[in-house]
Amino acid sequence: MIFKMDLFLKVVILFCFSVNLWCKENVNVYTYHDKPPYYISEKGKGIYFSYTELLNKKQNDYKFLVKFLPRIRINTLLEKNGLDGIIIGVNPIWFKDKDKTKYYWTNGFLKDEDVVVSSITRPFEYTGPDSAKGKIWGTVRGLYYFGLEELSQKKEITKEETATELQNLEKLNFNRIDFTVMSRSTLDYYERIKHWRKNFAISKVPHDIFERHVLIPKNKQKLYEFMKPL
C-alpha cells in the first residue's frame, strides 16, 4: 500500500510538472540584428539568446523564443498593431518613441556604441554627419543612422547597401567604400575571427552611444509588468 501511494504521488508530481510546461505562453522575441555577437543564427547563440535563457529561468509562465524578422516587416506589423511578440536590443529613438509613449520599454540591459570604421590605408576621422559629405558610405539594407540617412536623401553622400556588416568590412578591405558604421561589439567579433586587427581605423568620435532595451507592444501589459523590473 505504501509502495502504491508513493508511486501515485510521483505520477501526480510528474503530471503537474508536465501541465505547467504545456501551459506556458510562447513569447516571440524578435530581432532584426542578424549579426554577431547579438544573434548567431547558425549556432543558436549570442547575447540575445543568452538574455532569453535568463528570462526563461526566472519564471514559469512564459517561454521566450528568439526569432529573426527584417526591420521592414517589423515596422509594418507595428503600424498594424499585429506584432505577436516583443523586440530585443533596440532603442526608443530608433522607433520614434523618445518619450516612451507609443510602446512599453524595459530598462536598458546593454550599453553600446556605433563606431565609424574605415580602411587603415584611408582612415576617416568622423566628427559629425557633415564630415561625411562627398564620401561613399557602406551600410546594411533597412537600417537607419541619423544624420547620414538625411545626407543620402539630399544626395550629399553616396550610400551603398549590403545584406550584412561583414560584407561592408570586406568592401573596406578593397577600398570600395570610404566608411561604414556598426556596433563596436560586432567589429570586435569580426576582427577576432577574421584576424583583421590591423585592417581598420576607428574614428575617435562614434556615430552614437546608446543603451539597448526591449520593446513591448501596448497590448502586452501583463508581460510588461513581468519584464519592467528587470
Structure description:
This protein is α/β, with parallel strands linked by helices and 230 residues long. It has helices at residues 2-22, 47-58, 71-79, 148-153, 165-173, 184-194, 221-227, and strands spanning 25-31, 62-68, 85-90, 104-105, 110-119, 136-140, 158-162, 179-183, 200-202, 208-216. Strands 1, 2, 3, 4, 5, 6, 7, 8, 9 and 10 form a ten-stranded mixed β-sheet that branches. α4 (148-153) links the parallel β6 and β7. Residues 1-5 and 7-21 have low confidence and may be disordered.
Percent range of helical residues:
25-40%
Principal-axes geometry comes out as globular
Query: How confident is the prediction overall: mean pLDDT?
Result: 91
- Proportion of strand residues: 25-35%
In total, the number of strands is 10
**Low-confidence parts, pLDDT < 50 over ≥5 residues?**
1-5, 7-21
Q: Please identify the structural class as seen in this structure.
A: alpha/beta
Based on CA atoms alone, the radius of gyration comes out at 22 Å
Written as H for each helix and E for each strand, in order along the chain, the element string is: HEHEHEEEEHEHEHEEH
Main pleated-sheet profile: 10 strands, mixed
Straight-line distance between termini: 48 Å
Count the DSSP helices: 7
